[in-house]
Amino acid sequence: MGAYILRRLLLMIPTLFGIMAISFAVVQFAPGGPVEQVIAKLTGQGGDAGDRLSGGGGDVGATNFDPTAGEATSKYRGAQGLDPEFIAKLEKQFGFDKPPLERFGLMLWNYARFDFGESYFRDISVLDLILEKMPVSISLGIWITLLSYLISIPLGIRKAVKDGSTFDIWTSGVVIVGYAIPAFLFAILLMVLFAGGSFFNWFPLRGLTSENFSELSLGGKIVDYLWHVTLPLAALVLSAFATTTLLTKNSFLDEIRKQYVVTARAKGLSERQVLYGHVFRNAMLIVIAGFPGAFISAFFTGSLLIENIFSLDGLGLLGYRSVLERDYPVVFANLYIFSLMGLVVGLISDLTYTWIDPRIDFERRDV
Fold first, then answer.
1. Distance between alpha carbon 310 and the CA centroid of its chain, in Å?
2. Which residue from 348, 352, 350, 328 is spatially nearest to 340, judged by alpha carbons?
3. Which long-range contacts (CB under 8 A, 24 or more apart) does 207-215 make?
4. Contacts of residue 133, Cβ cutoff 8 Å, sequence gap at least 6
5. Cα 158 from Cα 252, distance rounded (Å)
6. Which residues contact 78 (CB under 8 A, 6 or more apart)?
7. What are phi and psi of 125, to 5 degrees?
8. How far apart are CA 273 and CA 117, in angstroms?
9. Considering the entire predicted model, what is its pTM?
10. In whole angstroms, what is the distance from residue 349 CA to residue 61 CA?
11. Which residues contact 82 (CB under 8 A, 6 or more apart)?
12. Distance between CA atoms of residues 279 and 264, nearest Å
């Protein structure tokens, strides 16, 4: 097993390199980079990023330029009439004064030491910014995973036991419809119905807590928090539990039809003893082993649009705004951290298989 773990860890290096290389190459051809963002703001074409930078007290913001100082034959759209020295200072500020390969190599060296630099448009390090936003996403991820498993496992077992019955048919319809509805679309529907849209105004639209949260008692804080997360969680859980439910059902059905179950029944064991004493451990292997991956999926990808819709200041909203603002240090740091965690969680899932069922030996399989 040690050799298998070592191989998996070593394979993470070229995988991360490939992910970062492809993403870096795509960004080189993407229009509207950080320099263009500042130029657009300074030339009156809009852009909040330029406003933050020019007013943030940084090197660029402290630079005085004369629009009539000389025409800049620049590669940047809208830079005509700006001082070439100012454009050069912008490029140096963002690190674009170096060749792409040098910038990529420097980024990899820094990321290998978990040095993600500072945000282009926020006066804070990227790591501190991610840590600041992480509690919101962790909160959503934990709740989504917990609720989906609490719903999926009992429902999947019940569907397996009642396979082909009316209960199995109509619950399958509900599960499939829930899975087919996009989370963001259901979130908008919930907003219209229950958050001050055309019908009821029962739930808030912004944040995880109220403005007077610090003044509330412990019980009041719990109620206030649950009040705020009800609609986001409802939108996310709708589709989150569908896959696990069907996976649980099919896994139990596969085990129930095996010979050892027939033997256990022939010995006079009750259905409950057969189901939870023999079938449960084998059937739940694939479901439990997928728990780390399910949490990471809910943590990083599931809340992207939901955080934007409900204005939840987490990693999803941070990543979305960073892409719009071309805040590349934040974008690449998120990509690197999420990719690394995804690879590590994949390894943990495999190790979970061997922990639940010692008969599984990945090392022997790879020989």
1. 16
2. 348
3. 207/311, 207/312, 207/313, 208/136, 208/139, 208/312
4. 313, 314, 315, 317, 318
5. 10
6. 36, 39, 40, 43, 45
7. -70, 155
8. 57
9. 0.72
10. 48
11. 39, 42, 43, 65, 67, 72, 74
12. 10
Distance from C-alpha of 135 to C-alpha of 132, rounded to nearest angstrom = 7
Residue 168: its H or E element: helix 166-180
CB atoms within 10 A of CB 61: 15
Query: What's the CA angle centered on 159, arms 151 and 295, to 5 degrees?
Result: 30
Q: How far apart are CA 286 and CA 299, in angstroms?
A: 20
Place of tokens 């819709």: 309
Choose the weakest-confidence range: 100-104, 210-214, 363-367: 363-367
Structure tokens at 127: 């790591």
Find tokens 């057969």 and name the residue: 274
Residue type, 322: S
Structure tokens at 82: 């700006």
The single-letter DSSP state of residue 258 is S
Residue 53 pLDDT exceeds 50: no
Residues 6+ apart with CB under 8 A from 51: 41
Predicted local distance difference test score (pLDDT) of residue 58: 41
Give the position of tokens 């992910």.
Answer: 19
Predicted pLDDT of residue 51:
47
The count of other CB atoms within 10 Å of the CB of residue 325 is 23
123: left (phi over 0), alpha (psi -120 to 50) or beta: beta
Q: Phi first, then psi: what are they for 322, rounded to 5°?
A: -65, -35
User: Are 360 and 353 spatial neighbours (Cβ–Cβ below 8 Å)?
Assistant: yes
Instruction: Round the average pLDDT of the chain to a whole number and report it.
Output: 78
DSSP per residue, 208-227 = SS-TTGGGS-HHHHHHHHHH
Instruction: Report the C-alpha gap between 238 and 155 in whole angstroms.
Output: 14
Phi-psi domain of 81 (left: phi exceeds 0; alpha: psi -120 through 50; beta: other): left
